[in-house]
Amino acid sequence: MRCSTTMGILIVATLPWLAGCEVDVEESGEMPQVDVDADAGNMPEYEVEKTKEGKMPSVDVDAEPGRLPEVDVRGPDVDVGTRPVTVPVPDIDVDMPEETDEAGSNQNR
User: Which residues contact 17 (CB under 8 A, 6 or more apart)?
Assistant: First the structure.
């Protein structure tokens, strides 16, 4: 119980950080250029039977890498503390009924 309460407090404490963070982009970046040529449509169903072992060809890919921007992220200061809490615990008392045999006499005497 204590662990889940602590986790709940930490989650609630970090929510303002997620909503109130400030991001400054210091350098812009760019994604690499990609050319994709494809026709849209549905694939028909085929029954395929392998008749011969195959091998994939070697492929040489020449592309310029992209560059991510550099960013400086500043979030709010979050102070998390603890305080003692009294949690009531239920007190359970179970009274089992007494068993009787076929003649009606009590077996738990």
Answer: 75, 76, 78
Comparing CA positions, the residue from 20, 21, 1 lying closest to residue 85 is: 1
* Phi, psi angles (nearest 5°) of residue 30: -145, 150
Would you say 86 and 36 are in contact if contact means Cβ atoms under 8 Å apart?
no
pTM of the predicted protein model:
0.17
Q: Would you give the end-to-end CA distance of the chain in angstroms?
A: 42
Q: What is the pLDDT along the chain (109 residues), one digit of tens a residue?
A: 555 666 666 666 665 555 566 667 777 778 778 777 777 777 777 787 888 888 888 888 787 788 878 888 888 888 889 999 898 888 888 888 887 766 655 555 4
Asked if residues 69 and 23 have their Cβ atoms less than 8 Å apart, the reply is no
Q: How do strand 22-27 and strand 70-74 relate by DSSP bridges?
A: antiparallel
Distance CA 21, CA 15 (A): 10
Compute the C-alpha angle 85/86/89, nearest 5°. Answer: 140
